[in-house]
Amino acid sequence: MRSKKLLITLSFVVIPLLLLSGCEQILGGDETPDTDALVQTSIAQTQAGMGEGEVAATTAVPNTEMVPPTETVTPTVTLTATETLTQTLSSPQAQVDVNTNCRRGPGELYDIVGALTVGVTGNVVGRYQAGDYWIINNPSGSGDCWIWGYYATVEGPLESLPYYTQPPTPTPVVDWNGTWTTKYGPLGGPYENFTVNLTQSDSTVSGTFTYDAEAYSLTGSLSADFMTLSGTWMGSGDSGSFLFHWLNPNQFNGNVSSSFEWCGYRNGAGVPSPCIYP
């Protein structure tokens, strides 16, 4: 549009000039017209003819108004706290720090029928009022069995847990008959080793031994569970008291007059530790 208006303006200037040039040649006069003045006059007339509206159009300033950017809204994430649920035990549960035998009753006299091992949970069904024992469902088989509470941790409701009475004590298989290698001496030594031969008859035990080239004899009585033998030893001019405590079929520990150690072993079991009892 702007180029077209410029062309029209130039045509108003150039055409009169050509006419003037022709007139000059026709007239052949010597007078030379003022060309610059004519050009300026033509331009002024042209602009006056076009009007103010067209001049204003050629000088219009483009719209430079900036559209503000649209604001970007970042959604806010709301975190919901996760509820921590605490498990409620419906019945007491037992775990142990050390693998523990499970027996038919409270104590070593009762047979081992199972075991509660580390990492395994036992369902507790009862407790023993007279000692530190818990009754659990046998982890190794059917029925219930007793575990020592020393290594056990019990969690869960105990209010309604019943107390169990101790089962009848089984007749112990304790056999003192035989030949025992014994260790004898004051606490800390020195010690003597010699052989003792024992003979058991129901709850009475008798025996013989040789110590420092002298022959001795002993006689004693067994406790109700046959595990403790207490009595008197005798020599030619010497005597004293003794106490033996059954550990297993091949070991016992004990003392002489409560101040000397006296323990025994057989079948390759080795000296029990501690030797003295109690």
Q: Which helices and strands appear, and what pairs or packs with what?
A:
Layout: H1 2-27, H2 35-50, H3 52-58, E1 93-96, E2 100-103, E3 112-116, E4 122-127, E5 133-137, E6 144-148, E7 152-155, E8 178-186, E9 192-201, E10 204-211, E11 214-222, E12 228-234, E13 239-248, E14 251-256, E15 260-265
Antiparallel strand pairs: 1-4, 1-7, 2-3, 4-5, 5-6, 8-9, 8-15, 9-10, 10-11, 11-12, 12-13, 13-14, 14-15
What would you say this structure looks like, in words?
- The protein is elongated.
- The protein has three helices and 15 strands.
- The strands form three sheets. An eight-stranded antiparallel β-barrel has the order 8-9-10-11-12-13-14-15.
- Among the domains are: 93-155, SH3 Domains (SH3 type barrels); 178-265, Beta Barrel (Porin), CATH 2.40.160.
- The longest helix is centred in the N-terminal third of the chain and has 26 residues, at 2-27.
- Helix 1 packs antiparallel against helix 2 (35-50).
- It has helices at 2-27, 35-50, 52-58, and strands spanning 93-96, 100-103, 112-116, 122-127, 133-137, 144-148, 152-155, 178-186, 192-201, 204-211, 214-222, 228-234, 239-248, 251-256, 260-265.
- It is α+β, with helices and mostly antiparallel strands and 278 residues long.
